[in-house]
C-alpha cells in the first residue's frame, strides 16, 4: 500500500509558506473592509481584488500544510471540479446578480458588493450557445411572453453588457405600450397571474421609439426578434430605447431567485417537478452521507506513484462532528487487522495530516515485539496482512515503543496500530507515535473505489 510522504529538509519550510498565505488573507481582508492608507473607502473593483488576494492566501495557507503528493491530488481534484463547474455554467445553469432596480418589484437590484438578488438562469432551455459568441449550437424552446430573460445587450456602450428584462413582444406582432398595458395586434394584454399587479408600463419619454411610436419599423417586431422591457418601466433602459432584441443575444431564462433566501421565488415551476425533487433528495442524501457516514481519501504509493482512492467509513465507529476530528459519541470498537485512518502529531508530519494503518492491539491487551515478530498476550500473531518475513523491529531512535518495557499493556480506549507496510524505514505508527487514542480515528477504510481497475475491499 502507500506510505505517508515526509517533508524532509526542504529549502522553504511549510510554516513560512503558511505565514505568506496568512498575510495575504489579512491584506485582502483589509482591502475588502475598505481600509486604505488614506482611510478612504475602496472602490468596488478594489474590493473584488481584495477578495481574490484573500482567496489566494487561503489556498496557499491550505496547501502549505500538505505533502507534495497530497497537494497534487487536491489540485487535480480541483481542476476536475473546475471543469465540471465551467461546463455546467456554460451549458446548463449560471447564477447572476441583479445590479439595478429596473425589474423591481419582481427582482431587487443593487450595484453594491454583496447586495441585490441572485438568480439562476437556465441556459439550455432556449438552446445552448457557442461560448463567447452570439450564436446557438441548436434552437431549443422559443421564448414566450412574460418570460424573464438574461441577454447580451445590443448597445456597444452600455453600462452593463448583460441585462435582465421581461419578454413582452413576440416576432411578427404589432406592439404598442398604451395606458400602462402592452397592446399586441390591437388587444390589450392582461398580466400573467404570477406577475406583480403593480406593473405599469410607461411610454412618456421622448427618447422611446420601439413599441411606442406608430411607424411600422418601431411597432412590428421582426422575425427572430423580441421586445423586452423592465417591470419597473419608469426606471428601465430597455427595448423601448435600444430596439428589438435578436434571439441569439438571449443567454437563458431566469428560473428562480436563490439568494437571499427571504426573496426565494420560482418563476418557471421547476421546483415542483419530479426530477428536481429527485435531485434534491439525492443531493441531501449525498451531503448527509459525507457528513455522517464516510468520505474518500487518496492513498499514494511512493514506489509506483499510483493513487488509490479509499472510502473511509466513520459511521461504523460513532457519530463525529462534521469537518472536525471530534466525536459526539463513540460506539464502534475496531477489530484486529482493521485498516483505519487516524491523525497524530509528529515532527515529520504537517499539521492536519492523516495516517492509515492496521489495528494490531486493543485496549487492555499486552503487546510486544520480539525478534521482529508481533505478540499479543504472549501469543504470536500470525494472520498478518503483510509478508511473513517482514520484520517489525525499528531502528528509529525516537520510537516510543522501543524505549519502554518489553511487554506493554495497551491503555483502555487506545489502540496499537502498525503501518500497512511496517517494514519500511519511514513507516509512522504506534512504534514511533505510541498508543493511538480511539477518538483520534477518522474512520475505517473499507474499500478502494477508484480507479475501477484496482477497486476492491480492504
Task: Please render the helix and strand layout as text.
Elements: H1 14-32, H2 44-64, H3 68-91, E1 93-97, E2 118-122, E3 148-152, E4 162-169, E5 175-178, E6 181-184, E7 187-188, H4 216-219, E8 225-229, H5 239-242, E9 245-246, E10 250-259, E11 265-266, H6 274-292, E12 294-300, E13 307-313, E14 318-320, E15 327-330, E16 339-343, E17 354-361, E18 366-370, E19 373-376, E20 379-380, H7 400-403, E21 408-409, E22 414-419, H8 430-433, E23 436-437, E24 441-450, E25 456-457
Antiparallel strand pairs: 1-2, 2-10, 3-4, 3-10, 4-8, 5-6, 6-7, 8-9, 10-11, 12-13, 13-24, 14-15, 16-17, 16-24, 17-22, 18-19, 18-21, 19-20, 22-23, 24-25
Helix pairs in contact: 1-2
Query: What is the terminal-to-terminal distance?
Result: 11 Å
Task: Let me know the number of strands.
Answer: 25
Structural class: alpha+beta
Instruction: Give the overall shape, derived from the CA principal axes.
Output: elongated
The name of the CATH superfamily of the largest domain reads Umud Fragment, subunit A
Number of domains: 3
Q: How would you sum up the major sheet?
A: 8 strands, antiparallel
Radius of gyration: 32 Å
Q: Mean of the pLDDT scores?
A: 84
Low-confidence stretches: 1-15, 35-41
Number of DSSP helices? 8
What would you note in describing this structure?
This protein is an alpha+beta fold and 458 residues long. The chain has three domains: 75 residues, no CATH class; 180 residues, Ribbon (Umud Fragment, subunit A); 170 residues, Umud Fragment, subunit A, CATH 2.10.109.10. The protein is built from eight helices and 25 strands. The N terminus is likely disordered.
